[in-house]
Every structure is written in structure tokens, then in C-alpha cells.
Amino acid sequence: MTSDPALDLLWTNLTRPSQIVHLLPDEVYELTKSRQYNLKRALVESDFTVFDKYASRVKFVDFSSYFTSITGGCELLSTLKSFRDPIFPRLLGFDWHPTAKFNTVGAFHLISLSKPRMRQSPNLQTLQVGLVWPKQSFCFTSPSRLGSPTFPV
User: Fold this and answer.
1) Which among 34, 64, 67, 107 is least surrounded, fewest beta carbons within 10 Å?
2) Using one digit for the tens of pLDDT, what is the confidence trace for 104-117?
3) DSSP letters along 26-60, please?
4) Buried b (16+ CB within 10 A) or exposed e, 21-47
């Protein structure tokens, strides 16, 4: 049996969207040949028993394509958000480099909130979004509670 401090350490950093999907019961989703996830049925509250145990431990998400080979999972985040908003309540940092190649655009749901008057996840302190265009790269970084964005040279 793994202790709470060990689980906290193991789940502090999330690097693949598929890790999120795998917190749901196996009978809920399927992986397609194109490496995307589809729901086999509508989600219900009881599907989140395991999800809740681990999602609250996630503090940093790194979905930058240069860090790891991103596989499917982001396509289900809008559905998860309708049950858990924010998806990761203790999220402190988010590094995201959306690309068509890895289809991570849905990751936006990790930092946006549906509730009025809230612009991002309540504890988010660092947001880094990198956009890759042909022959150019842009990176937006915002430190310290998202107060003032900086643009690295």
C-alpha cells in the first residue's frame, strides 16, 4: 500500500494527458487507432472515485511537445470539466505548447474556469504557453499569480 506522501510525490507532475483519462474506469473509454480517446458511454459521478483521489495531488502540468511524446487525452478534458471544475484544484504551474501534431488544444480546459469572475485555476502561479509556427517560436510566460506576463527574448 502506497502512503499519502509517496502518492503526492508521484502525482505532483503530470506530463501526458492520457494519465488523466486512465483515472477513469476502463469501461468508460476506448483508445482509437489514431491514438485518441472516445467515451463509450456518458460519465456519471461514480466514475470519479479514483480520479478524485489523484487529481487533487497534481500541482504541475507539462504538456510541452519537446518534453515528452504527447498522446491522446486532451480531447476528453471539456467533458471532465463539466464534472470537475477546476480539473486540478491544486494546480500551481502549467507549461503547454499546443500543436496540431499532438492535438493538445483541449488542454486549455485545465486552466480555464466556467464559474463567473474566475479567470483561471484558483492556485495557478505560473503559466507558460509556447506557440510553434513555421520558422518561428513564441513563448508567453506569466509568473507570480499571473500578475504580469513576461515575454522571453
Assistant:
1) 34
2) 667 777 776 665 54
3) GGGEEE-TTS-EEESS---GGGGHHHHHHHTT--E
4) bbbbeeebbeeeeeeebeeeeebeeeb
